[in-house]
């Protein structure tokens, strides 16, 4: 058996060329065979197809590259929930830009590991450029803002709580958040050994400053981190950041803002006002695999001052020995809790450079405008009820005369048929269908199709 070729080096591109051709062909035919946003038939049918394509997964004698790559890529594509389909609109799961996916291929080929400079000379310098740029975007008036790359919003929120905890090593940190907050916050408190979080009710969908004031008044004498949200997972709602920052300042509490969804409004001249007050937070979670159209992972934790990252400093002699650091080799180990890290900065850097602030802002505006269009269609639809005007690109709605069980059944039927992928959310004590519009290529006609499918599957 010949030794398989490598992806890198001067010979790598020639070895990749026929394999990429096979991948692209299988992606195309797999999407055609799927014929919609989701494979029809539900989990059992999909699992059976995957089993057929992969069995045996570890044969005694290999099939060879083409015989493995083509069929398995085809099975993956045929069985995908494809966010590039306009009717795949359930989650904060954006279709990646072709540009970003191509950049990610280059990163995979070169395979830098961001735990020491000698594994990632250019990639580490590029990551530093990207984190400085995004930190300045988040904190335009700060003297020394900084940012770290994470696997997503969950890891960024965990890091925010960790850094806040380490500022008070002898006294338990109390975390306060709204009922609208992401589930990663109470889980992070549990993971870090903190007291159970304090949940402030959010009957109107956002964290109320007066309710926060009353909660903080009960925690006098304790170190507190308040976690607000700029773009909730269920509805895209944005908490009143300036007023919350005022309350935190009055009580001496730190403020973290989970802007994993809404953060890229910063790129939009029309919409960035909705994030007024964001720069008053001590830390901010961003995630560009949502309104940034990046392949995962693309999470960021930004902080108003680089000194807040000091607790992450760590030394492993084989990676960042003191004499190497003193000699000028960058110390990367304190830039994450992870050791081996992909160069996720590269695809983001290519995207920022290629599209610029105005290009990214235009994409953000497109999907938010699309959500306004869908809300208008639902508002005027005789058989559908709109929950509220969208704050971002998420729209909640339901068949007017359906009960919660019927709403859930409509969603599952559309999934099983492979016709549409809609999410679900609870608000005002009821279950709603959720359309999360992150595809800038979606057209109003696609929204018409979505609503007709919902109406056609609503029990009478």
- Structural class by SSE content: alpha/beta
Largest sheet: 7 strands, mixed
Count of beta strands = 12
The number of helical elements comes to 14
* Beta content: 5-15%
> Assembly state here?
single chain
Biggest sheet strand order reads 2-8-7-6-5-3-4
Report how far the terminal alpha carbons are from each other.
64 Å
Proportion of residues in helical segments: 40-55%
Q: How would you state the average pLDDT, rounded? A: 97
As a whole number of angstroms, the C-alpha radius of gyration is: 24 Å
Uncertain runs with pLDDT below 50, 5 residues or more? none
Order of helices and strands: HHHEHHEHEHEHEHEEEHHHEEHEEH
Shape: globular
Structure, explained:
- The protein is α/β, with parallel strands linked by helices.
- It has helices at 12-34, 42-54, 65-78, 98-110, 121-138, 153-166, 184-191, 209-217, 241-251, 317-320, 322-326, 345-379, 404-417, 444-456, and strands spanning 88-89, 146-150, 174-178, 198-200, 224-229, 254-258, 283-287, 299-303, 384-386, 394-399, 421-427, 430-436.
- The strands form 2 sheets. It has a 7-stranded mixed beta sheet, with helices on both faces. A 5-stranded mixed beta sheet has the order 1-11-12-10-9.
